[in-house]
Specification:
Shape: globular
Number of domains: 1
Structural class: mainly alpha
Number of helices: 9
Distance between the termini: 23 Å
Strand content: under 5%
Helix content: 55-70%
Order of helices and strands: HHHHHHHHH
Radius of gyration: 15 Å
Length: 173
């Protein structure tokens, strides 16, 4: 499934509120939307000018919200992968937002998927590492203070800016 508009993405993120699951952490349950908000907020505090990195943190949850048949055909079966839900979910997220949010967000999500699956990611990308650390910090109790994370609607403008920029860049190519 390819997301074609910010509205579709927002609808999907809203649908994930209260879903209470973390596919890459068996036995641990959390709201994927709340986790995404905390991750994005941590990245906003650490790198306020890097909107694409912040958005990558926000859309990490999208893959888990898509059904197994939607998005990437690669799933976890690509070249020696373990086939974990985390890998296939993150790859689905990357594929779903690629056209809307651009290659950089796609690359960051893909690197996040492979790193979470234990695959070596080379070259080591500072931005991908920042994303992974923020996602981990947002999972810890008290990490990425929920009150400071804001609400999903706060991110609509940032999503629209990144999507519009990607749209203009695509038109030039």
């Amino acid at each position: 499934m390819e997301l074609r508009s910010v509205e579709e993405l927002m609808d999907l993120l809203h649908a994930g509120r209260g879903a209470a699951r973390v596919p890459d952490r068996p036995g641990r349950r959390t709201d994927p939307c709340a986790h995404a908000l905390r991750t994005a907020a941590l990245l906003r505090r650490g790198r306020p000018a890097d909107k694409e990195l912040q958005i990558a943190g926000l859309v990490l949850a999208v893959g888990g919200l898509l059904g197994p048949g939607e998005g990437s055909d690669e799933g976890g079966s690509e070249g020696g992968g373990s086939g974990t839900g985390a890998l296939s979910g993150a790859l689905r997220a990357a594929d779903a937002v690629r056209g809307l949010l651009g290659e950089r967000v796609f690359r960051l999500l893909r690197q996040q998927a492979y790193a979470a699956d234990g695959r070596p990611v080379r070259p080591v990308d500072e931005d991908a590492l920042a994303l992974r650390l923020a996602a981990e910090e947002a999972r810890t109790p008290g990490g990425g203070d929920g009150a400071a994370a804001g609400v999903l609607e706060d991110w609509r403008t940032v999503l629209e800016l990144v999507a519009a920029r990607n749209s203009r860049l695509g038109a030039v190519d």
